[in-house]
Specification:
0% strand; 152 residues; 7 helices; 2 domains; mainly alpha
């Protein structure tokens, strides 16, 4: 009798584990779908919660242009996804900040922009604007400090 009971338990446990795996997959998919890429996604969520989306479709029809507007707003106002520094990028910043200079050579500008654009997921073009460079260097200094604080 005990052999039968032992034989059933693994099947029940397996079924429960499979059920939990399915639930976990659904939860992960829900979370992924809930992440906003930009302002358009956030406004879509607000409009759905308040019912404005239904009013717009009732007035303008099913193709009210909401999807195109959402994509355009996401492109215009994306939420930044910050990437971690690589060891090479940390080395570039370490070398630059250790010099403690107010001057940025053209090769430094190129290297700093490459790090800045990849880490902050932006497309900052080269510039001669000193206040723009001040902001870029301040942000890179903050990222460099956070990296060092996290790894000490």
């Amino acid at each position: 009798m005990e052999k039968k009971r032992r034989g059933r338990q693994p099947k029940v446990v397996t079924e429960v584990v499979d059920l939990l795996k399915d639930e976990a997959k659904e939860l992960v998919n829900d979370i992924k779908e809930d992440v906003s890429e930009g302002l358009g996604d956030t406004l879509e969520k607000v409009f759905k919660k308040t019912g404005i989306d239904k009013v717009a479709k009732w007035i303008a029809g099913e193709d009210c242009g909401c999807d195109k507007r959402k994509e355009k707003l996401n492109q215009m106002f994306p939420y930044r996804k910050i990437n971690c520094l690589t060891e090479d990028e940390h080395g570039i910043l370490e070398t630059f900040f250790s010099r403690n200079t107010a001057e940025i050579s053209p090769s430094d500008q190129h290297a700093l922009l490459k790090v800045y654009n990849r880490v902050l997921n932006v497309k900052q073009e080269p510039t001669s604007c000193s206040s723009c460079w001040r902001d870029i260097v301040m942000q890179l200094r903050k990222i460099h400090k956070e990296y060092d604080d996290a790894n000490t």
